[in-house]
Amino acid sequence: MANVFLNGKFIGTHKNPDKLIKEIKEMRRNGSMPSEINVSYYNDEDSIFIFSDKGRARRPLIVVKNGKSLLTKEHIEKLKKNEIKWDDLVKEGVIEYLDAEEEENALIAVDENDITPEHTHLEISPIVIMGPQANMVPYAQHSLSYRITLGAKMTKQSLGIYATNLPVRADTDVSVIHYPQVPIVKTQMYDLLRVENHPAGQNVIVAIMPFEGYNIHDAVVINKASIDRGLFRATTYRPYKCEELRYPGGQTDTIAVPDKDIKGYRTEHAYRYLEGDGIVYPEVEVKPGDVLVGKVSPPRFLSSLEELRVGTEAQRETSTTLAHGEQGVVESVLISESEEGNKFVKVKVRDQRIPELGDKFASRHGQKGILGLIIPEEDMPFTENGIVPDIIFSPHSIPTRMTVGHLIEILGGKVGALKGKSIDATAFQSINEFELRKMLKEAGFKEDGTEVMYDGRTGERIRARIFVGSQYYYRLRHMVANKIHARSRGPVQLLTRQPTEGRAKEGGLRLGEMEKDCFVGHGAALLLKERFDSDRAVIPICKQCGLLAIYNKFKNKTVCPVCGDDAPVTFVEMAYAFKLLLDELKSMCIYPKLNLKPKY
Amino acid sequence: MILPQSVEEQLKELKETLKLNKAQMEKLRKIAERQYEKALIEPGEAVGVVAAQSIGEPGTQLTLRTKWLAGATEMTVTQGLPRLIEIFDARREPSTPAMTIFLKPSYATSEQRVEEIALKILEITLDDIIKEIDVDLLRMRVEIELDPQKMKKFGIKEKKVHEIIYEEFKTAKITTGAYKINVKPKDEDIDIRKLYKLKVKLRAIHIGGIKGIKQVLPVKHGNNWIIKTSGTNLKEILKLPEVDIENTTTNDIFEVFSVLGIEAARNTIIEETINVLKNQGIEVDVRHIMLVADVMTNDGTIKGIGRYGVSGAKASVLARASFEVPLKHLFNAAVSAEVDDLRSVVENVMINQPVPVGTGLVNLKVEKKEDKKK
After folding, report:
1. Any catalytic annotation for residue A253?
2. ipTM topping 0.90
3. CA–CA separation, A184 vs A195, rounded Å?
4. What dotted CATH number matches A2-124?
5. Which of A73, B29, B47, B101 is the most exposed place for a label (fewest CB within 10 A)?
């Protein structure tokens, strides 16, 4: 007696599970039951699971009966003539959708010729096995699934032309590659997604060889001449927003060139690119600190004291400036109205990003790496024909990762470039490696894709034959220009007087607890003190009560709030954070008395 | 200069084997002294931090989960990081108590004899030798049927079982037959629940062997046989005449402490730590582990590394407060008007002063004129 579950709930038992399942499937196929129903049988538990609820991922397959596909030539003819549609095939029971559970009970043939009497279904096309992202990996059947996943992930990070209305868009922080190309080695998915209209990479000549250790650990070496010709050149767009806000009490911001007597006025130099309306003009080169939109805000607090002031003195300067570490050219200025009806300005700044050391590149097989060295073309190795590679890729990246698809793509790219046609590399139906070898041989090349190469610097022949070919490469969005960060001096936090955190705030790099332990372990006491001197403070302390005293700089006088004017006060150097701790202890009603004595 | 005893002994040995004269001996001694001095740790070295890092870094490589080896003859013992934490936290009882019992040479070579001893040690309860135990609700008594085969295996006589039950349940009325025992409580108001409780109690009665030894396993160790056990009872095991007292150990540190004293406990900590690390293929210099063991045992009791042990016993309020539960330490310090002399590392990092370690330990003292006059 098999247990029967409907949507996970036990509803009864059945004597003959095979018959029940067969009948349900039959009814689903002939239309007397909804096509959304899926049945599966668990042998070990002797249970039937019927599902009809929402949220199941299902995929279409051609039904196979008695070793024969139900999709006949007539169907295809009719489809071509547009006489029937997809839904008709589903209604007819030729195509049905399986969920993950029912798929476990199915035996699916990939090719029609492979069908045996045991098979229950046939793939419509191998493409439907994977999603669109994974299908963009060429020769996926030759690589590990994890590498395909990585390849699909990096496809998402690649730079390309993602939209055709770029001039009027104002996306935050996007980059666009200048000369995108359609890959030579492509999959059917490229045609389905119409990637020709918005490609995201470039075909480059790749040589797989080490280069003086500069492509160690996944780094790549790139030809300087290729970069000069515009290889992987990109532009980053960053919009800056500025809005005239309204405040309670009828006051508003004003977008204008600020007056000189306004609180927080920068230098005249900072405002030099502003036009009369307080906004920069297009096509001007801006540097960090330059004002893009000048703005003046009303005072933050309305106190009686400030009301007495005359004119604009109380107003604050709140201009929008170019962020720290950025530079570029003003692309366009947009003046509009915000949702609340305030005046609203968006300034789009563009910056050219020429590939530089540390930028990230990747092939479509999860083989990502960082640019390790740019070398002049004349120093690059070259082949007998004078072909100079654009990228030198390290052979050590291949064996452990077993991305055979990567190698076959290079082979395919070479064939495609020689024959002047694109190579189909769709998973499970791509052009065979042996055909590629044959075609390569016909074109007069060595069939394994290797070539004799010469060292560009010495002219000597490189002893090993080098595997060269054409491959599609992505430039990924992670660029050093957006990440590089160092600090010697800079802003501190208001509360602790310690350096700020993070690149955007020009922050310091934290020397943490475990790093501190290393200093202690080495016995480097004074170096440790110096590293933690960032919030050093000299603080007046009353010798009598051991609490903080006050130092009046103008009168050069010290006062202890507890013991009075005559109290003996000395200056003690300590971490400002420790002074804060003392304050907090006092707020906890703990009296942190400092017993002072001379150090030496 | 006083050299350690082991070095002195080696020198003496060298003198005898090489037949050195007095002048040569003096020269040798000088070399030894120089070498010894070289090997000493320099003043101001941050030994604690170095020890902590030396044990902590390999600790990141330890297996996080206890491994069970299916079908292996070894008994399962907690290993890896869980065991290391157990040792350093000074848990009262190890999660898998175990003993390694060495035997005197006259017993250790024969497998048969070792097996006999192993069976003698193994704790046997009534449950191990019965065929059936039941509650007879009609006559309100517990009926026990013994298993003669099992009793023979463990070498237990029927009479002895009777004696033990008589001794244990004096208040009950006990009737005995051929391999049958009936126990009826004498109380007037016996109910079923009490009877069932009695049944559970009877099952757990200790019949033979040593309490706490739950499993025994004779294992070949070189040419000799040793007995590995799960469950430990060091005190009773050491009383056995067959046992080699010097080598027999348990992994229960607190038991070693109560039976053999604090020095033995210290050695157990060292030994157990080395074993855990060795099992994972990691070698840490013994001196680091020795230092940790010393810190854990230096006041005559076993303290764990942590809030209730070593870290909680720090002299400085600020150091304690910076570790865990700061409020508790700060308020308690305020109540008793504690003074922090700022003598250790953590406090000085907090106030940003040179830490008294390494270069921060030494100071130049300027001789003042007034000092000279005095």
Report:
1. no
2. no
3. 12
4. 3.90.1070.20
5. A73
